[in-house]
Amino acid sequence: IIAESIDLKPIDKELISKPKKGKKTTREEFKKIVEEKTKEMGGESGGGTFIMRIQH
């Protein structure tokens, strides 16, 4: 993916609002959730390269 342009003008603060729903979590809880979801998707924490080859 390549960016075609980058816009650095100030953001209108009225367009950004606090979430009204959801569950608050600590940083440690969040890290645990991310690890679990990564394992569910077949990935490994620590990154890496994924190559998909499609042949016709």
Please explain how this structure is put together:
This protein has one helix spanning 27-40. The two termini are 23 Å apart. By secondary structure, the chain is mainly α. 25% of the residues lie in helices and 0% in strands.
Major β-sheet, in short?
A: none
* Spatial extent as radius of gyration: 18 Å
Oligomer: single chain
- Beta content comes to under 5%
- Terminal residue distance: 23 Å
Number of E-state strands: 0
Q: Enumerate how many helices there are, as a single number.
A: 1
Give average pLDDT, whole number: 83
Low-confidence stretches: none
Helix content: 25-40%
Identify the overall geometry: flat
Order of helices and strands: H
Helix-strand makeup class: mainly alpha
Give the helix/strand layout.
Layout: H1 27-40
Quick description:
With 56 residues, the chain is mainly alpha-helical. Helix content is 25%, strand content 0%.
Write out key terms for the chains shown.
56 residues, 25% helix, flat, mainly alpha
